[in-house]
């Protein structure tokens, strides 16, 4: 269960990372996480999931 | 008449319209869902607009229209989940298709499973962040545009856009890869 404060942090980092070039995101997150490995993992997994979304959204419907 | 009260600026009247809107959408949905033609698709967007035209069919303030759509989106979600729950029991799994979450809900065993998974995930998201769950409900089940969603929630379209991205990523992760 996410605390409100933590969720807000995740959001901030997620939006900030989306603004960056994909190559720049890992370094940014590494620096921004402030030693919080869990936070990094959470944001990273959302970013991965978001890339997956984009990729699929570009796939034309099969039917 | 409720519709007139609503146009007169009584927001409460529109909330009382929920059963009426639900009923009308359900009727329209059934026409698609239970039609004999297999593979017939249901687009939430089209149905909600049709219900709007039938029930309101008048020039109303933009804000009021957004309110109507917010209620319709809630009703649409309920209808699709009810339908999906009734139809997923027989068959589940088999596909490993990823949900795009960009097009309103379609019909079929795979789509029915997606709708119920999405509904479950959306309830979890609502517990963490109700606004994001509202955004998804309006965009996905109500077929609203970003601007309409923004008006309905009284936030900026840029916020809708941004939060939709996060909500989508969160939901897809929550729903996991659909594998047999």
Textual characterization of the structure:
Chain A is an all-alpha fold and 63 residues long. Chain A has 3 helices and no strands. In chain A, helix 1 crosses helix 3. Chain A is globular and about 30 Å long. About 6% of the residues of chain B have low confidence. The radius of gyration of chain B is 16 Å and the shape is globular. Chain B is mainly alpha-helical. In chain B, helix 7 crosses helix 9 and helix 8 crosses helix 9. The chains are: A mainly alpha (63), B mainly alpha (180). Chains A and B meet through helix 1 and helix 3 of A and helix 9 of B.
The count of DSSP E runs of length 2 or more, i.e. the number of strands of chain B, is 0
Order of helices and strands of chain B: HHHHHHHHH
| Largest β-sheet summary of chain B | none
- Multimeric organization: heterodimer
Mean pLDDT across every amino acid position of chain A: 78
What is the H-and-E element order of chain A?
HHH
Estimate the global geometry of chain A from the Cα principal axes.
Answer: globular
Secondary structure: helix percent of chain B:
over 70%
Low-confidence stretches of chain A: 54-63
Structural class of chain A: mainly alpha
The gist of it:
The complex is a heterodimer of chains A (63) and B (180). Chain A is an all-alpha fold. Chain A has helices at residues 4-19, 25-32, 37-58.
Architecture blueprint of SSEs:
The complex is a heterodimer of chains A (63) and B (180).
Chain A: H1 4-19, H2 25-32, H3 37-58
Chain B: H1 2-7, H2 11-16, H3 18-33, H4 44-55, H5 62-88, H6 109-128, H7 130-141, H8 146-153, H9 157-175
Brief descriptors of the model:
heterodimer; A: 63 residues; mainly alpha; disordered C terminus; B: 180 residues; 70% helix; globular
């Amino acid at each position: 269960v996410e605390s409100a404060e933590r969720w807000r942090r995740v959001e901030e980092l997620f939006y900030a990372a989306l603004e960056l070039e994909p190559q720049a995101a890992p370094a940014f997150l590494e620096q921004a996480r402030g030693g919080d490995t869990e936070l990094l993992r959470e944001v990273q997994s959302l970013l991965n999931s978001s890339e997956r979304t984009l990729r699929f959204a570009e796939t034309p419907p099969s039917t | 008449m409720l519709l007139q009260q609503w146009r007169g600026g009584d927001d409460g009247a529109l909330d009382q319209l929920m059963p009426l809107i639900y009923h009308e959408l359900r009727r329209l949905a059934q026409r698609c869902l239970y039609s004999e033609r297999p593979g017939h698709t249901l687009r939430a967007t089209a149905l909600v607009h049709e219900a709007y035209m039938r029930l309101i069919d008048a020039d109303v303030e933009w804000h009021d229209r957004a309110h109507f759509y917010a209620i319709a989106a809630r009703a649409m979600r309920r209808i699709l989940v009810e339908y999906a729950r009734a139809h997923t029991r027989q068959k589940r799994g088999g596909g490993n298709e990823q949900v795009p979450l960009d097009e309103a809900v379609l019909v079929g065993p795979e789509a029915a499973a997606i709708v119920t998974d999405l509904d479950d995930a959306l309830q979890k998201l609502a517990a963490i962040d109700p606004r994001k769950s509202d955004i998804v409900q309006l965009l996905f089940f109500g077929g609203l545009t970003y601007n309409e969603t923004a008006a309905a929630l009284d936030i900026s379209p840029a916020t809708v856009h941004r939060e939709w991205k996060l909500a989508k990523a969160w939901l897809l992760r929550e729903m996991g890869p659909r594998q047999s």
